[in-house]
User: Fold this.
Amino acid sequence: MIILDKEFQALIPPLSAEEKAQLEENIVAEGCRDALITWQGILLDGHNRYEICERLDIPYRTISIDLPDRDAAADWIDKNQLGRRNLTPDQMSLLRGRRYNRAKKAPHRPEKGDQNDPLNPQKTADRLAKEHGVSPATIKRDGKIAAFMDEHPEEANAVIRGVKKLKDVKKKIKKRKTEKALVAAQKSISDEARQSIESVCDIRVCSCGELFASGIKPDAVITDPPYPKEYLHLFNVLAESCAAAAVPLVAVMSGQTYLPEVMQMLCKHLKYRWALAYLTPGGQAVQQFPVKVNCFWKPVLLFGEAVDWIGDVCKSQTNDNDKRFHDWGQSESGMSDLIERLTKPGDLICDPFLGGGTTAVVSLALGRKFVGCDIDAACVEKAKQRVEASWK
Assistant:
């Protein structure tokens, strides 16, 4: 008697309707030529042939193979499928990754780190790479993909069945995790803010240098310093302060009139990563008369190590340039795009050029904490009132 094991059966990419119809036609015409493979009575290969033969009462043969355990049986299935099926790149990646991860966990291994261990991760990657005609780096990448998908069996099964693409599934899972983290962070921020707004939003009357000298350790600095020539030295102060505090991510808006000088000062102290285009669409263009340019975007200079992938275009909503709280104020929609793109819920965001407090309001709304400052006491008071009003 043949045993059907759901766990093993789920490992096998199914035939398309056309492929299964062709297989049935061949079996009806020629009989079941290939034997079904079993281990301890459990069917490992030939599920479609078995179903067709049982349904149509067609004879079939079985061959029993000897394997040490269920992991070995599962690995036999993956290896067999990789060797005989027309698989998508996503299916092949998952199957190779599962084989790699199983081999790394194989029992009775020598001590960890033993370079003579035939099953050590590098040796395993080399062996499977040669077997499947890919690079060892590809095998290791496949292992990470398979480990990630093991945490999401329903989505993994959809990829194995060929009904979903791996990139779409990963994007969906990432979006779901991000949304869950955001909701949790927003609730935490909200609960704390209603107890004491100062616990999540620290706004001070001081200079950029003084703020960092106090010992703050933000996860990210997202700021828009003043652009006129007399304020250029502030970009140098900002860069020195962020470097001294080892801020992981620094995003600095800048005008373009003095962009070479700004870049020089920032790059002297910080590791340049990229320049994002911050779009300001609609009838809010700034007219730069000396160079005869209507400006519909500005650079956001990004510094720090590359950790997560990001897109390099962000924007405010059309005609959303908000000057209600400060003459140089930014839109909440534009700052939301930047903060969501560059940071994570729960992060501490810093803006040492507070202005009207847009970065503070948006940070809290997105489940981030905030610390910032301005040398203008009136601006600070107005920003505090704006923040407090957003929680009433």
Notes: The CA atoms of residues 38 and 71 lie 15 Å apart. Residues 166-195 form the longest helix (30 residues). The chain is about 45% helix and 15% strand. Residues 108-118 have pLDDT under 50 and may be disordered.
